[in-house]
Amino acid sequence: MRYLSQRYAMPYKEGKAVLTDIGTEELAHLEIVASIIHQLTRNLTPEEIAASGFGPYYIDHTTGIWPQAAGGVPFNACEFQSKGDPITDLFEDLAAEQKARSTYDNILRVVKDPEVCDPIRFLREREVVHFQRFGEALRLVQDNLDSRNFYAFNPAFDKPSMAKADGCNCGK
Predict the structure, then answer these.
(1) Was 130 annotated as part of a binding site?
(2) Where is the signal peptide (predicted)?
(3) What share of the chain is helix, strand, coil (3-state, %, to 5)?
């Protein structure tokens, strides 16, 4: 949802396309992860639930899929991280892809079941590709800095005479 929300503030059609493509693909990633979780939990016995530490989740959601972090923090709209500045948003996206890759790395260190590891490896590879594509989009935005980006809302940032008049030593 983050990438699909950010696309509205992206001033370049190539950047919008990257955000749309990756946002759509990330919805498929959610489906893959949810399917893995469902397959791993659907036939657990009450004893297995208690022994695995899955009890608190099970009590609230049975075996339904409720997106949350491994530490139990549920998904919320703060995950969207849409600032409206293409440079800020793309740096956020680059970080998000690296955090997802790190999470998949950690899963692969712990889980040994090939039916889980194979799709997780696939997802990890896609996060690397997404990181690269966001890097390309960031370069596009930075190469085209003009009145169609964040600075259009803050023109004083680019005017050295304004900074000097205010006594700012910015850039020195």
Answers:
(1) yes
(2) none
(3) 70, 0, 25
